[in-house]
Design goal:
By secondary structure, the protein is α/β, with parallel strands linked by helices. The protein has two domains: 101 residues, Periplasmic binding protein-like II (D-Maltodextrin-Binding Protein, domain 2, 3-Layer(aba) Sandwich); 92 residues, D-Maltodextrin-Binding Protein, domain 2 (3-Layer(aba) Sandwich), CATH 3.40.190.10. Helices cover 30% and strands 25% of the residues. It contains eight helices and ten strands. The strands form two sheets. It has a five-stranded mixed β-sheet, sandwiched between helices. It is elongated.
Length: 208
């Protein structure tokens, strides 16, 4: 199995959660697992069908029968603000959430993410003033501004960033399920199956 893995490259799409956590880190030193790509959700099925990627970690709700899936982990959210924020101190209200500008963490550079879709469903809109490809720069920006950033609750619990405070979202929601996707032609491939098992095992340590 090991030699099989060395004979092929594994190309993977990682979604917004990975932008926040760099979920590819456990595999970053592995030979032939260095091709991590960021795609718009609409491109994922086409890339899996064409074989330009082998795996995708995403929240894609619907896919054709040629695409197989495994549930990874459930994602809930928290918003962070500066510990010195002029208004958001003891609680995050919906009024304050919509009043202040937001930082969005996304690989694809959009100014609209999952939270915006939740707000759209309620006829609400926030102002996204900045998008970043990774979360590493977020605490420094948030600590020095009045901006808000909403991230996976698990990311915030694990990082323990100084000079910021976290709050639950000020509206009800169900979160979402991160899912591992692959094309059925790879289902019985030993190397591919090994990699899927490693990702599923790693996901068991993620809780939100």
């Amino acid at each position: 199995m090991g030699s099989h893995l060395q004979d092929r490259d594994h190309r993977s799409h990682r979604g917004d959660f990975n932008a926040q956590t760099d979920a590819g880190a456990p595999f970053s030193g592995a030979e032939n697992f260095d091709r991590l790509r960021s795609l718009h959700r609409q491109e994922i099925v086409d890339c899996l069908e064409k074989g330009s990627i082998d795996l995708a970690i995403t929240i894609l709700p619907d896919a054709p029968t040629t695409i197989k899936r495994a549930s990874l982990f459930h994602v809930n959210w928290l918003s962070i603000v500066s510990a010195e924020h002029p208004e958001i101190r003891d609680a995050m209200t919906l009024e304050l959430f919509l009043k202040y500008p937001h930082v969005l963490v996304t690989h694809v550079g959009d100014l609209k993410g999952y939270i915006d879709r939740l707000l759209d469903d309620r006829g609400l809109k926030r102002t996204v003033a900045m998008s970043l490809p990774y979360a590493l720069a977020v605490p420094a920006i948030i600590a020095q501004t009045d901006m808000i950033c909403t991230l996976s609750a698990n990311v915030i619990r694990l990082t323990n960033w100084p000079r910021v405070r976290s709050f639950p979202l000020p509206f009800d929601y169900f979160g979402y399920q991160e899912t591992l996707l692959w094309h059925r032609r790879n289902d019985s491939d030993p190397g591919h199956a090994w990699l899927r098992r490693m990702l599923i095992r790693a996901s068991e340590t993620v809780t939100s």
